[in-house]
Specification:
Strand content: under 5%
Structural class: mainly alpha
Shape: globular
Number of strands: 2
Largest sheet: 2 strands, antiparallel
Order of helices and strands: HHHHHHHHHHEEHHHH
Strand order of the largest sheet: 1-2
Number of helices: 14
Length: 362
């Protein structure tokens, strides 16, 4: 049973590729991107998904095996030395535009698939040490407010008009990017400000976590500017933005067109497995630490990644996450495939909806 955890070391291949990308030139700079967006999607298209769940005995052993946790901790501790290597590599006078594009794209891949994704997993933990590591992981993409909005907003409002991270039926990924990025940020401020009001505090307070977030991220950007210069800072912004777009594309494919039934004034049925799209394609599952078993994650958010289950009533994606993310970038193809699937489900948006997220409250 101990060896089961070691399959989750496979994402380290991306770090190995990144080291080559940041120290080489030409096509080598793009190897992690080719692996993530060409090799994996093509391979998963031909592989059968694995719907098997752990037995009760296997689940108990997996719960007790700390190796699964240590892998996540290791990813966090690798992220910042790799970011340092990326920033240092930008000082190379022999760097060409094509090499720069490959290195920025590769760092963006690390920010999205490992930085934000591992931050998401650790952000659902109860131990303070793990939560701090999760926030540090999100810092590498300048998206620390995700911890607040995702845990206290998205999981509460998923599949409703109040959730900026739930894609509407008929909405393209490009429109979704703009709506989700802007309103998720506003939502994080609203959540924090509301909590402070309940405690009798004003929003401009040292207790405001969103203010902490801005200060920490500004400090990181200041350090990068001071030690590596303005060009490196701009390149970091580019990589972080790619990471953010990868996250939001994942959000898009996870909930596209699915909604929860309203049961009363501002009340909705509990989030169930059939309210999230699921994928059991193995390579994507390993690369993203089982994030693609998203139906079970929303059904029981406290369940650790190695324990996530397949549910028979969960709607299934036709391929793995990398392939679905690529498909979403071509809206006519996405709609032709996914709209038919949505219409077969009972939880379907019959019309596109406009987000009803309110303005920032003080």
């Amino acid at each position: 049973m101990k060896f089961r955890a070691f399959k989750y070391f496979s994402p380290l291949l991306i770090y190995i590729g990144a080291i080559h990308s940041f120290t080489s030139y030409g096509i080598i700079c793009f190897l992690p991107l080719i692996y993530a967006w060409v090799i994996i999607p093509v391979t998963e298209y031909f592989l059968r998904p694995d719907t098997a769940n752990l037995s009760d005995a296997e689940e108990e052993l997996a719960k007790a095996d700390r190796t699964y946790d240590y892998i996540l901790y290791g990813i966090v501790f690798l992220q910042f030395p790799t970011l340092f290597l990326f920033l240092s590599s930008l000082q190379d006078p022999a760097l060409r535009t094509v090499d720069l594009a490959g290195r920025i794209g590769t760092m963006g891949l690390l920010c999205g698939t490992l930085g934000i994704n591992v931050g998401h997993e650790l952000g659902h933990r109860s131990k303070q040490f793990e939560i701090i590591l999760g926030k540090l992981s999100l810092l590498s993409s300048l998206y620390m407010h995700f911890y607040i909005e995702h845990n206290k907003g998205h999981h509460r409002h998923v599949g409703t008009p109040a959730d900026p991270s739930s894609a509407r039926f008929g909405e393209s990924v490009y429109h979704f990017w703009m709506r989700s990025i802007v309103f998720s940020y506003i939502s994080a401020w609203n959540i924090t400000n509301t909590e402070l009001r309940k405690e009798g505090r004003k929003w401009f307070s040292l207790k405001n976590e969103m203010i902490h977030v801005q200060l920490i991220q500004i400090c990181l950007c200041g350090l990068i500017y001071f030690y590596f210069g303005p060009i490196a800072l701009l390149c970091f912004f580019g990589a972080a933005f790619i990471g953010i777009l990868l996250l939001e594309t994942v959000n898009y494919i996870e909930h596209y067109g699915l909604s929860r039934r309203k049961t009363g004034m501002d009340k909705y049925e509990r989030a169930m497995p059939h309210h999230s799209w699921n994928s059991n394609h193995v390579i994507g599952r390993l690369m993203l630490f089982e994030l693609s078993r998203h139906s079970d994650h929303h059904y029981l958010a406290s369940r650790k990644y190695q324990l996530l289950r397949h549910h028979e009533d969960a709607p299934q994606m036709p391929t793995g996450y990398p392939g679905m993310m690529m498909l979403s970038l071509v809206p006519p193809l996405w709609f032709s495939i996914m709209n038919k699937k949505v219409k077969k489900l009972t939880t379907v948006h019959t019309e596109p909806q406009i987000s009803s997220v309110p303005a920032v409250s003080g």
